[in-house]
Amino acid sequence: MTLTRYIAGILLFSAVSILNGLPSWCAEAPVQAAVSIAPQKYFVEKIGGAHVAVTVMVPPGVEPHTYEPKPREVLALSRARVYFAIGAPFEYAWLPRFKSTNPRLLIVHTEENVPRIPLAQEEYHELVRAETPESGMDIHIWLSPPLVKIQAQSIFDGLAKIDPAHIEEYRANLTRFNAEIDSLDADLKKLFYGRQQAKSPLPPLLRGENGKFMVFHPAWAYFAQAYGLKEIPIEIAGKEPKPSELMKLIKLAREQKITVIFVQPQFSARSARTIADAIHGRLVYADPMAENWAKNLRTAAEEFKAALR
User: How many angstroms from the chain centroid is the CA of residue 21?
Assistant: First the structure.
């Protein structure tokens, strides 16, 4: 190696070392944001664009009802500036701990101002379970496009608060994201209400059609509410059906002419398989936790529509 190349290498190494040692504001580092579930990453990136870097707390294949952060995941939050909560059960215990390890962390509750659905509907218990319905509210608010617009506004407000220098970009991104949501919502309404809403302005259940679908875990109630459908869950609040309840569900599925049972990767499909076998039906996976939110809802909607036929 010549002396010139040696000196050049030393200078390059020194320059890189100096740049790595600069404070984050010199390089305009992105805002470190954390979210509970993967679909929220989609929302935050749509609004934050290049100015945010998003960490998802609940890993793929794990259910947010039972998730407990590992020490390394809690440690990763030490650099975060904002946490976008969604009302997942683990948040109630862990958000105060996240805040105690990172006092500057802004916690934004995106579930605020979102109208909630009871975890267990009275009709379900009248048909299947005799005990008192479980208390609590359904957390799956990200599966309804109209409700995502409310969550998107909360995300914008949070980013604007911690990074006002880019507020106009965030505002423009929010406008574009709202337009995307409206387009998706319109497409799903056409799918379920009919190609021309003037000819069939009522949702399936009000038109006298069978708009009921059966799922293992009750994740799709908000989606069903948005498009005139009705979810029939097999499991509620982590409780699988007893043998007598399983027989009632099989009878209900036959009465409603249900031939498809929807399951998701985060749960066992054992009970769903038992019902599907009894009614000579099949299982179809519909994952409420998929990161590509818009694509996933379109795919799930097509599956639900096909099942309703």
Answer: 37
